[in-house]
Specification:
Order of helices and strands: HHHHHH
Shape: elongated
Length: 163
């Protein structure tokens, strides 16, 4: 695993690349009707995850006795972007490939925990996990609603105006 750990890093950067790579492979292997739904849910979930507004300083920025184990900007750490992103991708993959999704979710927890150990996050990783689960659930509800509306419109044909 030596080449997966960048100089000065904690070894969690690979999650940013591994999660979408595995998700892309799953997407390519899906039957055509499922591809569009997964892609739409992924875009919506990631947009919802990235759009959160809350400010919580990183542990090393407020406690001089807890220096970060690697160089990191002292910006907003809430929620953990790495954890939220990886967890969102894992939840999306989980809907179509359960085992792979569970492995990716475990990777997001491990990656987030490593960032806590490196003192660049605190409870922010739990928030990242919860945000991802909520974003994917909300996106699934929206997609389900849209699918039902489209199906109903297809079954009843175009609306005819009443004269």
């Amino acid at each position: 695993m030596g080449d997966l750990v960048p100089a000065g890093g904690t070894g969690t950067r690979w999650v940013r690349f591994a999660a979408p790579t595995v998700a892309a492979v799953v997407w390519f292997l899906l039957p055509r009707p499922h591809k569009r739904g997964l892609a739409v849910r992924a875009v919506l979930a990631l947009a919802l995850t990235a759009g959160l507004l809350h400010d919580d300083p990183r542990p090393f920025a407020v406690d001089p006795l807890s220096p970060a184990l690697f160089r990191h900007a002292a910006d907003n750490g809430f929620p953990s972007d790495h954890t939220a992103y990886a967890a969102a991708v894992s939840q999306l993959v989980l809907t179509v490939r359960r085992r792979i999704g569970l492995v990716l979710f475990a990777c997001s927890v491990i990656g987030g925990s490593a960032r806590v150990a490196a003192t660049v996050h605190q409870q922010d990783i739990v928030a990242g996990l919860l945000v991802a689960v909520a974003a994917v659930a909300l996106t699934a509800l929206v997609c389900s609603f849209v699918d039902r509306r489209r199906s109903a419109a297809r079954d009843h044909g175009p609306a005819v105006p009443v004269a």
